[in-house]
Amino acid sequence: MNPERNPDWDNLKSTVADVLKQAKALGVDAAEVGISYESGLSTTVRMGETETIEFNRDKSLDITVFKGKKKGTVSTSDIRKEAITSSLEAACRIATYTEEDPCSGLADVEFLAKNMPDLDLYYPWAVSPEQAVLWAKECEASARAFDTRIINSEGATFSTHSRYSVYANTQGFMGAYPSTLHALNCTVIAKANDLMQRDYDYTLARDGHELESRVAVGQNAALRTLRRLNARKMKTCESPVIFSAEIAGSLLGSFISAISGGQLYRKSSFLLDHLGKSVFPAFVHIQEDPHLPKGLGSAPFDQEGVTTKRRTLVEAGILKSYVLSSYSARKLGLKTTGNAGGVRNLMISHSDQDLPDLIKEMGTGLLVTELMGHGINLVTGDYSRGASGFWIEHGEIQYPVEEITIAGNLKDMFAHLVAVGNDVDHRSNILTGSLWVHKMTIAGS
Questions:
Q1: Sheet holding 174-192, edge to edge
Q2: Handedness of CA 397, 400, 401, 407 (dihedral sign)
Q3: Integer Cα distance of 307 and 201 in angstroms
Q4: Residue 234 in contact with residue 441, Cβ under 8 Å?
Q5: Do 293 and 119 meet the contact criterion of CB atoms below 8 Å apart?
Q6: d(CA 322, CA 162)
Q7: How confident is the model over 261-287, as pLDDT tens digits?
Q8: Domains of the chain (ranges, CATH numbers)
Q9: Measured between alpha carbons, how far is residue 184 from residues 142, 146, 237, 423 in Å?
Q10: Which of 62, 225, 239, 293 is deepest in the core (most CB within 10 A)?
Q11: Does pTM surpass 0.85?
Q12: Alpha helices for 245-325 (secondary structure H)
């Protein structure tokens, strides 16, 4: 399906152009407009019965105008002509009363994207509600039939969504691209010795034909749930910790937050003034690749129209670049890195060891498979979160553990990273394998 021939696609582009034309007529110095149209289908089944079938068709419009260095922003889901005019006038009124900010304004022309590479993000899937329900039922049924200890289900959900995005500004830039995302997940409950546990599995992809099979997702959900049965509490201790791949991305997410412009110009990051300094061990290399075909974070330009490109954030353990939008870059006296809206397809170098290899080499320690809470202080780097997982001895999993808290300091955790596994989880914008941290405090009973 060619998005250029889709009536909604053409209408979105036309709407954006009209908004900018109206903005100029109102006498603003500059303006930018972002508009998106999303449509999709989501179905949920539970215990073999259909619970929900939902269709969505949503439009959103964001308008920002600048009067000198004064800024006004409005958002609306109503894109009728009269509603757009009203919104634009409201943005102008807001700009009249806001304080001037010398760092405010559109991205500099020299940084705007000139080319729009096809990143292979658009795979529309004409799935009927009946077919979606059937697939969700098959997924859940495979989980429930896996073992007699699976006694209940929180359901399985299948969803498919398409999105059209257009961004334009008064500097002559207009960029647009479509994308799709398809997903299937399942959550079940197991019981043994009058104690119950729950867990889940999921798959998602730009191209629906690249999803894991319904049976595999269901069986993995069951297997993950069963292995948590008979979990124990453990005594407080210090120990090496491996973060499994599916949660390891949250650690790198904290790293990205610490080197993001907003934290830096507010002087609220534990990595303030660390550019050019060692942050990780020398074996660590971290890159961003916004042009990864079918990547979950891929985009030809950022939210300001700035071109995105592959770049290195950490080389041989040394911090080489921050994560900046135009505004935060100006606040810091630097140049934008094309990261308005965040990083896109972050990748960390890994060893040739898989998770069993890391467990064997660690010998004794904790494998964390779930994190809870948000006990992260980016100013100091202090880290404390609820967790569950598995206790390791003699290089093998001994038993599941729960109701523990792991604590440390992110700066120390990054500096003493022991290894990165090759079990990369591709279901995320942050692509990493399991992360082995040298030592953390584990608070238990």
A1: 70-76, 49-67, 30-46, 150-169, 174-192, 195-205
A2: positive
A3: 35
A4: no
A5: yes
A6: 32
A7: 999 999 999 999 999 999 999 999 999
A8: 3-226 (3.30.2290.10), 233-445 (no CATH)
A9: 13, 18, 38, 21
A10: 225
A11: yes
A12: 245-258, 261-265
